[in-house]
Amino acid sequence: MKRGAFITLEGPEGCGKTTQIQRLAERVRASGRPLLLTREPGGTRTGEAIRQLLQHDSSDAEMNPRTETLLFCASRAQIVAQVIRPALEQGTWVLCDRFTDSTLAYQGYGRGFALDELRAMNRFATGGLAPDLTILLDVPVEESFRRLAARAAQSDRIERAAREFHERLRAGYLELAAAEPARFQVLNSLASLEQTSAEIWRLVQQRFGASEYAG
Ligand code: TMP
After folding, report:
1. In this structure, which residue's CA is closest to atom 18 in ligand 1?
2. Which of 42, 139, 165, 170 is surrounded by the fewest CB atoms within 10 Å?
3. DSSP string, 198-210
4. Pocket-forming residues, ligand 1, beta carbon under 6 Å
5. 13-23 confidence digits (pLDDT tens)
6. CB-based contacts of 194-202 (< 8 A; 24+ apart in sequence)
């Protein structure tokens, strides 16, 4: 059986990633392909528990950044083994909201951990599984902060981090994309929601073929 396509969406908070991945999922489903939509951290019972730990750390002491990094990787190990790999092997397409590049961007470029160490951790967590296509929704820091302010009530510990962090994050994502042009597609998320979702669908069809499953 043909392995399913593995597509990830990446970008900073406020880039519109979650809305876009939902739209893409609707289009993939409508084209008749079996699909699994999931997210990181989360997507499994263990992963959702880890997500809660990461998002609701309201204690005075900040979670140690190394602990945080290991928790992201722990959630990833679980979702790959339990959900993503089996689905792909059955021919199901997998769309994942964040994956290994988030660790490189946030913990690497953002927090300053060594990229080679993070890459080794990602490899350990995923057993070497990499996305076939990664769509990066790039948005200027000014704009993502403006969007985040509009939903300030949802802001979590990481979203409150400094603006400089987000500048490094954006530059880091763009560097990752430039280093792997065959896997990454960078979209400017200042375009309208409709334009961006149409462009994402075009890219996906171009990469994986429009007619294969369409009936
Ligand atoms: P999201 O719901 O906007 O995707 O938020 C998840 C948060 O977790 C976001 O701040 C990015 C962060 N994150 C990391 O720092 N490293 C990671 O490896 C992943 C998957 C997420």
Report:
1. 103
2. 165
3. HHHHHHHHHHH-S
4. 13, 40-41, 72, 97-98, 102-103, 106-107, 158
5. 889 999 999 99
6. 196/16, 196/20, 196/137, 197/20, 197/23, 197/24, 197/27, 200/20, 200/23, 200/24, 200/135, 201/24, 201/27
Residue nearest to atom 5 of ligand 1 (CA): 13
Domains (range + CATH), the chain: 6-208 (3.40.50.300)
CB atoms within 10 A of CB 182: 7
What is the atom index within ligand 1 of the atom nearest the CA of 158? 10
Report the sign of the C-alpha dihedral through residues 60, 118, 71, 38, in that order.
positive
Q: How far apart are CA 147 and CA 154, in angstroms?
A: 12
The pLDDT value recorded for residue 105 is 98
Note the pLDDT tens digit of each residue in 80-106: 999 999 999 999 999 999 999 999 999
Structure tokens at 77: 């190990």
Phi, psi of 80 (to 5 degrees): -65, -50
Tell how strand 133-138 and strand 35-39 pair up: unpaired
pLDDT tens profile 111-131: 999 999 999 999 999 999 999
Q: Is 39 helix (H, G, I), strand (E, B) or coil?
A: strand
If you measure from the C-alpha of residue 40 to the centroid of ligand 1, how many angstroms do you get, rounded to a whole number? 7
